[in-house]
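Backbones bend. Our protein:
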Amino acid sequence: HVPQGPVCSNLGLKPGQRLTVKGKIAPNAKSFVMNLGKDATLLGLHFNPRFDAHGDVNTIVCNSKKVEEWGAEHRETVFPFQKGGTAEITFGVNQNDVTVHLPGHQFTFPNRLNLPVFDYFDTQGDFTLQSISWE
């Protein structure tokens, strides 16, 4: 069972806005997840840093999900996270993609579902949410 963190459901993030998430990574972390989307069934961005999970080591796996249907996995090999450390991640919403800002690195993930607004955010796994802000 994956521990479920807080859920936000009325963010109203539109292009030009950003969401900043801060928290603590568990000392024995295997992986954690952040989901951004319309709701729990329509995820524009499934952000999944894996320390050691599903055959991936120190890899960030991103995907999208439409109801029960996952898209193609996108992998980033830059891995700025440490077990027992803190993490600050900013998701910038653009017209056609989401820019993920990590410490010293950024990448974009396409808005495959063409969501006009991102209302939903949750965290799961070996991560404790400390603060969330959006502008």
User: Anything to note?
Assistant: The chain has one domain: 14-134. The two ends are 33 Å apart (CA to CA).
